[in-house]
Amino acid sequence: IDRLNVMDRTLLRLALAEIEFIADVDTAVTVNEVVELAKLYATEDSYKFINGVLGGVVRHQPLTPPLGL
Q1: CB–CB of 46/6 below 8 Å?
Q2: Nearest to 42 by CA among 9, 16, 13
Q3: Alpha-carbon span 12 to 58, nearest angstrom
Q4: Percent of the chain topping pLDDT 70
Q5: Pair 54, 12: CB distance under 8 Å
Q6: Which are the contacts of 11, defined by CB distance < 8 A and separation ≥ 6?
């Protein structure tokens, strides 16, 4: 985590929080928006890394939201 630049880390935190805690937003939309932000504001190849990390999270995410959300 410490080796990631600040923008990459911030975008990943934003996306992971949205995927985990905001059930109203489709995860595909979240991933797409964060990848687009990475293309604009992060380093040249950061969007590929961010897309890979978020893709892995989405693939391993439970199909139903946790109780209470």
Answers
A1: no
A2: 9
A3: 13
A4: 88
A5: yes
A6: 34, 37, 38, 41, 42, 46, 50
